[in-house]
Write a structure and sequence with these properties.
- The protein has 460 residues and is mainly beta.
- It is 6% helix and 66% strand.
- The chain has a 22-stranded antiparallel beta barrel.
- The longest helix is centred in the N-terminal third of the chain and has 21 residues, at 2-22.
- The chain is globular, with a radius of gyration of 24 Å.
- The two termini are 30 Å apart.
């Protein structure tokens, strides 16, 4: 990981150097967090073994802004020590950073980003979202991006966007070297500059290629024209026509990987708080549907989404706003796969509390080896303000995973409760309890865990 740390350092130095030249305001927020946890099952196995765990997390948040720069950095160094298993002590990094630089006003821009997180390697191995167990099922993942782009108006009626992105996805585990990926993407768009009229249009082109050692290069190329008609206030009819030309290894060589695409959709927005969109496509692999529903009613928010898309881990790691994580579905893989995702969320705000209910289902169909994975989950999150300085948080979740080819199934349920208190402007602490229960059709893969944690955080 030493060369990857050098990459991060170079990006940070570049960010800060640009900040010295252009930023008019900045904010630095250092902190340190100390916690002690006790678990009755440190290995997440059917044979329980207790352990006390100490964790120290120094962190820094930095933000800067000016006429030509917006920059945000959030970094944590997480040091974990096991009382009785010192050989398992570890230090991991967590980083989220993004800079947007205006090179030429109203014309040329540059996005830079570096992100580090821990990700489960395999869904069939024990998974601990708290990462307070002894398991080799997590890898540190570094994603870096350099992306110059043009965003300008041609006259008053046409908007032009051109973007090139170069991304690297690097895994910390030596066994995952072959999964390290490089992504190159080109995107271009010509579109009507204003959507206020009855007719709007766009022509979009994208070409994305992912390179890695363990599979052949994967390429997704698409050109599509969109025409949107607004016959009446609040209603839109959306039509599309395009062509896709893709290159990826497929277990069934007779299946098409290119062809025309046609789309027809309807969007209704009767008010600023409500939007419904349904779009159907006839694509090279068959029919696909996209559904979006957003509605706010007083203190209640509703959201429903369904989508399906061919992609690969490396591409989705690199695309902003896109995440493949859904109850940790899927191991790390550079195969192309068709992913279907459906989600429903309901959020209700009260005077002193907030409740959110989420349901989500995912399905992956891997194209190279033909395997399928499915997961469905439900979660509930409740925040309650007890006093001006004291909060109660309760989370409950359940998810079920299925590996279709092997007939292997597993389900997990989690109960988490936390009581936090702000002792002053700079000091806060919490007491937390988590119960995790995992069931599996695979012999020896069942386990349960109770985890107690005391936490203190000091901001400087």
């Amino acid at each position: 990981m030493s060369h990857e740390i050098c990459k991060i350092s170079a990006l940070v130095i570049l960010f800060l150097g640009v900040n010295d030249l252009w930023a008019f305001s900045w904010e630095l927020l250092p902190s340190v967090e100390v916690e002690v946890s006790h678990t009755d099952n440190v290995y997440l196995s059917s044979d329980k073994e207790g352990e006390t765990i100490y964790r120290v997390t120094p962190a820094i948040q930095y933000s800067a802004g000016g006429e030509r720069l917006v920059f945000n950095l959030d970094y944590q160094l997480v040091a974990t020590k096991f009382a009785a298993h010192s050989s398992e002590d570890e230090v991991v990094n967590r980083l989220s950073s993004l800079a947007n630089i205006t090179v030429l006003n109203k014309l040329l821009f540059l996005d830079l980003s570096a992100n580090i997180r821990q990700r489960a390697i395999s869904q069939s191995e024990p998974i601990d979202s708290q990462q307070l167990s002894i398991t080799d099922n997590y890898s540190e993942v570094l994603t870096t991006r350099v992306s110059p782009y043009v965003d300008t108006l041609l006259g008053q009626d046409v908007r032009l966007m051109l973007r090139y992105s170069h991304d690297n996805v690097t895994y910390g585990e030596n066994s995952l070297d072959a999964n390290d990926s490089e992504v190159m993407a080109v995107a271009a768009s010509l579109a009507s500059a204003s959507s206020a009229g009855r007719i709007s249009w766009s022509i979009n082109y994208s070409d994305r290629t992912a390179k890695s050692d363990d599979v052949e290069d994967i390429r997704f190329e698409q050109i599509e024209g969109l025409l949107t008609l607004s016959p009446t206030e609040g209603w839109q009819i959306i039509t599309s026509v395009g062509y896709e030309n893709n290159d990826y290894v497929n277990a069934d060589e007779t299946e098409e990987r290119e062809g025309e695409s046609y789309g027809l959709g309807l969007q209704w927005q009767p008010a600023a708080t409500t939007r419904i969109k349904v779009m159907g496509h006839d694509r090279y692999y068959g029919n696909s549907t996209t559904v979006e529903f957003v509605h706010s009613s007083g203190r209640t928010n509703y959201a429903l989404n369904y989508s399906e898309e061919y992609t690969v881990d490396a591409l989705s790691e690199a695309e902003q706003g896109t995440s493949l994580d859904s109850q940790n579905i899927g191991g790390i893989s550079n195969q192309a796969f068709l992913q279907r995702r459906a989600s429903l969320s309901i959020e209700r705000r009260f005077i002193r509390s907030n409740v959110m209910l989420e349901l989500q289902g995912d399905e992956r169909e891997y194209q190279q080896d033909g395997t399928e994975e499915r997961t469905v989950g439900v979660s509930m999150h409740w925040d309650r303000r007890l006093t001006q300085r004291t909060d109660l948080q309760i989370e409950m979740s359940w998810n079920q995973n299925e590996f279709v080819a092997s007939d292997r199934e597993g389900s997990s349920s989690t109960l988490y409760a936390s009581l936090s208190h702000r002792f002053g402007r700079r000091i806060e602490g919490s007491l937390a309890y988590e119960h995790l229960n995992h069931n599996s059709t695979e012999s020896g893969a069942e386990y349960a865990r109770n985890l107690f944690t005391v936490n203190m955080r000091l901001s400087f």
